[in-house]
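Postdoc handover notes: sequence design on the structure in folder B. Input tokens:
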């Protein structure tokens, strides 16, 4: 599916000229609500490092080259090193306990569609209720987005 032509872009899309937005803008009823939801997740309660780590692991699991390409720079800006970004693709890489928890959430949701009791208990120890909900929604959203990007054949910029 081709992105909406630039002359039809709204102000948000003009300010954020990514193929994902220009393509989703073809559905004017859903696009504004999608942007609000995506924006809430990207500007939520989770630390930026945790958010980007979860997104990259989800992109890896889903084989989403688009999401990987779009989130490597924000991941680095959030404090992940080049080596850490590449290590996201290595299931047995060594991580801090905090980072490993975020990766485990993405792994559990990808492989089982649920969190193990151990992952949930660790999540409860580390995050408040709002952050727990947000992390699960973030991983679920980016799994869905990967499917949408792949199905609509959205090209990397």
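Designed sequence:
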């Amino acid at each position: 599916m081709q992105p909406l032509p630039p002359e039809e872009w709204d102000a948000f899309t003009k300010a954020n000229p990514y193929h994902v937005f220009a393509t989703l803008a073809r559905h004017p009823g859903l696009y504004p609500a999608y942007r609000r939801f995506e924006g809430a997740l990207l500007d939520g309660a989770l630390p930026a490092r945790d958010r980007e780590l979860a997104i990259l692991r989800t992109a890896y699991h889903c084989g989403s080259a688009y999401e990987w390409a779009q989130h490597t720079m924000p991941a680095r800006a959030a404090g992940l090193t080049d080596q850490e970004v590449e290590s996201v693709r290595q299931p047995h890489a060594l991580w801090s306990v905090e980072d490993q928890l975020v990766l485990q959430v993405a792994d559990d949701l990808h492989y089982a569609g649920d969190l193990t009791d151990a992952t949930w208990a660790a999540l409860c120890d580390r995050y408040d209720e709002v952050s727990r909900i947000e992390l699960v929604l973030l991983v679920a959203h980016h799994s869905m987005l990967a499917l949408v990007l792949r199905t609509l054949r959205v090209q990397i910029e």
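Context for whoever picks this up: The chain is about 70% helix and 0% strand. Don't rerun without checking with the PI first.
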